[in-house]
């Protein structure tokens, strides 16, 4: 290892490098055009969340009394903020250039995104009617000059900052400043931002909702006598940290509800504006919103909130999108028969979205009706808008089952949804547990108790992802359906911990945070180190979302120095630096960003013949290891163990959509061989072949 060689990559910069990979997908000409727009939307949405959480955290440190506090690699918080802002400005400029390129390519295939100056009379009439009947009734417009208090500007909403200059005929000596009025128009979030216009000669046209409003400014402000009017978009991002009061008389549900409401007025961490806005208009809004920090003010283009491109209409153009996968059945597991009876004899793995999430829903629906089932216990983190999981649990409660739900009210940005679901379940007689004080519950587990003879038999599932039908269509996750008493008995212990959390339970099989994950994973790595030091084959293969815990990184460095071969698939943040002589020679690390979001966490210790295989809800991040309730499940079924090892190998063989992690964060594509190998496609084929083998 070279002198002064840094051991870690800065976490925030590594995250920005991940979002750059998303942007690469938007720029990739092999990706269908409408999917490229979707990736632009994902990039923008990710960036919003980054500013609300990570940037806000660094900013808090920079503004603290101990503002000289060093961050990673000796960089001060204020310096890091400046570096982040510089990176973001470059990425935003790149995203705008990519958008312009996509719009040009869309025009080549007959799709035109137009503004208010580019529409014909028929389209103008359509826009006018659309505004009158759809937009005007929900439009929030505020005249600002005479207000004693400036209105709340909502986090991440789009606004038009309007400037009106009144006619001067009555008093020509009045100054421009006195003749100027300002207004704020909130762009309605309940209307799709992309309005389809009447086609012309087979060509399709889209106009932004912003421009629909701009075209109707005269209609909106008809009572004002002005000679000039302009409207430019602005957007703010607020600190999303939740602050809780200490009132012992309030329930946890009430505290979370109040805290979410308080978030609406959190500190502004970013103000983005149309760079063509008049300086006096910009100064007016900066002053009224009380924004002083220069690093929070970012110039942009005519349109912001490009996250809305995630909802760009497909216009019936299936040729311009990959579309959703058609989920495959799980080999040997019939969704039409009893799931409980099938997993009584054998464990099954469901790998979404390659295979159907309906197996999980069917299991819960069956448990809700089965007269022998007495109880259902489940953890919930993020849920679909109209959750079939919730519906199944309510159905179970109505059928007399004892239903216990641990619902995480602090699931970031899903708090309001989870509060609403919690209130609904409470009203249906479901027992709710609101976590463990000081710990988020991020585990993905369920246990069902069933009377069989004179004994209680437990069935259930453990997963790497949320029990969410919507995200299961685009997130890759693995779920084990099992009745293995070794596993289910300890899953039940986790629920006992939720209720009696002053008691630390012991686990022989499961690895549970915050008490055992660090020590157990450390031991697993040390076992491989010992093998290598004794000249035995040693190997570690880890697939996760983020790797940022320095102690775990140091253990992987130890493994590399001992001669252990380490293969890492890390989609997002990776603070480990691979390939450094004397430090990480034996470590390779890649990221896969493709049409599906890689979310499964698969951990393999040892070579194939003696491998210990786990699935987990936890990444190698300090918060997952020490500050949350997470569950890592060992895989005992040989067929599933082989399947997960095969899965890792397929991902590792990929040479399309695979980038190399490196200290310089270049996001270079990995090149392996000449034959194209796209891991997500090959994994789908792998599962399809499993079905064909059974049919043969």
TrEMBL record:
Residues 339-502, 510-680 form the Polyphosphate kinase C-terminal domain. Mg(2+) binds at residues 382, 412. Residues 8-114 form the Polyphosphate kinase N-terminal domain. Keywords: ATP-binding, Kinase, Magnesium, Metal-binding, Nucleotide-binding, Phosphoprotein, Transferase. Its EC number is 2.7.4.1. An intermediate of this reaction is the autophosphorylated ppk in which a phosphate is covalently linked to a histidine residue through a N-P bond. Residues 122-312 form the Polyphosphate kinase middle domain. GO terms for molecular function: ATP binding; metal ion binding; polyphosphate kinase activity. Its cofactor is Mg(2+). CDD domains: PLDc_EcPPK1_C1_like. Pfam families: PP_kinase, PP_kinase_C, PP_kinase_C_1, PP_kinase_N. InterPro entries: PP_kinase (IPR003414), PP_kinase_C_1 (IPR041108), PP_kinase_middle (IPR024953), PP_kinase_middle_dom_sf (IPR036830), PPK_C_dom2 (IPR025200), PPK_N_dom (IPR025198), PPK_N_dom_sf (IPR036832). GO terms for biological process: polyphosphate biosynthetic process. It catalyses: [phosphate](n) + ATP = [phosphate](n+1) + ADP. ATP binds at residues 46, 475, 571, 599. Catalyzes the reversible transfer of the terminal phosphate of ATP to form a long-chain polyphosphate (polyP). Belongs to the polyphosphate kinase 1 (PPK1) family. HAMAP family: Polyphosphate_kinase. PANTHER family: POLYPHOSPHATE KINASE (PTHR30218). This is Polyphosphate kinase. It comes from Paenimyroides baculatum.
